[in-house]
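Slide 14.
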Amino acid sequence: MRTIVVLEDEVAAMEVLRHTLEEQYTLIEAASAEEALSLFIGQDDRVDLLLAEVMLRTSSGIQVALLLRGNLAELPAILTSGYPVDGWSENDAADLERLGSTAMAIAQEPFLPHVLSNVIRQLIGSTQSEPKTRERCTLCLGHK
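Slide 15: predicted structure.
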């Protein structure tokens, strides 16, 4: 089963993500950037995807994606946000450019669970037998 690090600091949103994904994927849940980074260490070879909220209380999901890709360069990432990309801070916009568009997607909240599942499947598949594509997601929302 594929493994996803889910970084979400809102309890209700984490519950929805858990309900949507737990039957198809192994989830490593984190409520802060620090927790996500500490849970990732030592498991980076088993992590298939990062699903992270962009605007966290004390950090940014984009910064976490950049740090994790420092250890696992091709780690696919899905960034979620209730704000359109053009409403993000200048720092987040600059970090997004550094992150690049390969193996990554942006999901504008609210999104339908099946749309998120489709994006994940396109990036990493749903079972161990499906190949990881590592290509740019064609279902990306809001990112060129």
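Speaker note: The two ends are 30 Å apart (CA to CA).
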